Amino acid sequence: MAAGAALLALTRAARVLAVSRSLRDVAVSLGVPTERIRVVPNGVDVERFHPRDRETARRAVGLPVDRTIVLSVGGAQRG
Question: By CB neighbour count within 10 A (0-12 exposed, 13-18 middle, 19+ buried), where does 32 fall?
Fold first, then answer.
């Protein structure tokens, strides 16, 4: 049932974002017209984001040093 709902959502969506050409190709194979698909690759600025001392970083932003933290960062831009 969930796969059917996902397929319905993909084929009815005004736009579909894919993070790679291979995922774009999967969407096309499922019936999404290519003109409705935009490839926006994942990426990271390694000059700005790099490993640091975990405890120091957590203390700097007021996060607990003894807990598991899940963080997701993202953004979308044209070009």
Answer: buried
